[in-house]
Amino acid sequence: MKNIILSFCLIATSLTTVAQTTQSLETQIAKITRTSKATIGVAVLDLDGADSLFINNSTHYTMHSVFKFPLAIATLAQVDKGKLSLSQKIHIPRESLDTSTWSPMVKDFPNQDIDLTLSDLLTYTISKSDNNGCDILFRLMGGTKPVNTYIHKLGISGIAIAATEGEMRKAWNVQYTNWCTPAAMAQLLRMFYQQKLLSAASNRFLMKIMTESQNSDKRIKGLLPPGTVVSHKTGTSDTNKKGITAATNDVAIITMPSGRHIALVVYITNSPAKPAANEPVIAAIAKLVYDHYNL
């Protein structure tokens, strides 16, 4: 009996220690968020353990290009069902492309029709955050509604995917219809990491194009040691005439030197600063998380 009581005491002590250390990290991050005039939401999950923390989780944060991550998952789920193929060719007429939006594919294939495999289209959309690629994928999926429905059926309710990139460009307020809580995105990252959503091949492919991302390296990657593996997707809005930036975001799976994996979500919404000024805030939060788990 004494041994059993001792075992329970050790378990309780261990859980208390974990809670205390997580609380210490939360306190450090909260100091950063309180100094900002923007609303900042943060989620941290130890993907190989039990640690979790959430800051300002009740706000609906506009995602911007972060929504390309759930879009990619939904698309690859169709690949796994045999309804799509990564090798299938997609013909993209020149006149269907928006040449005024962020689109590396338009720069790579100027003034011409484009033929890409679905694999290439996903790479442009995730690794290069191509807005044309994103909306072509939405058309391939039948619009935003089927993608939104798929994510909700996974059990993730704290997310809304309602407007394409093109639709968001039509009016400032439309971007706020694409929202997510930090906890919901962290949950999706955990399900992805645990390979609960896709086949092993599709999981490896998406992890690869997120790791090889050409999105800004001044956010979650900004202050981390060179060579740190960060599989991530950013999201960035315009700044309006009032000087408000609706979104400066980054969501990631960070691989620690020990092999441990940490999911980190940082959303900055309605900031009176431009994205370049918000990026160091994300970098500082990521450095705190990295240092905390670099045991």
Provide a quick synopsis of the model.
This protein has 295 residues and is an alpha+beta fold. Helices cover 44% and strands 19% of the residues. The protein has a five-stranded antiparallel β-sheet, with helices on both faces.
Question: What brief labels describe this structure?
Answer:
295 residues; alpha+beta; Beta-lactamase; 5-stranded antiparallel sheet; 3-stranded antiparallel sheet; 10 helices
According to CATH, the homologous superfamily is DD-peptidase/beta-lactamase superfamily
Number of domains: 1
Strand order of the largest sheet: 2-1-10-9-8
**CATH third-tier fold name:** Beta-lactamase
Number of helices: 10
What is the CATH architecture annotation? 3-Layer(aba) Sandwich
What's the level 1 CATH class? Alpha Beta
Overall spatial form: globular
As a percent range, the share of helical residues equals 40-55%
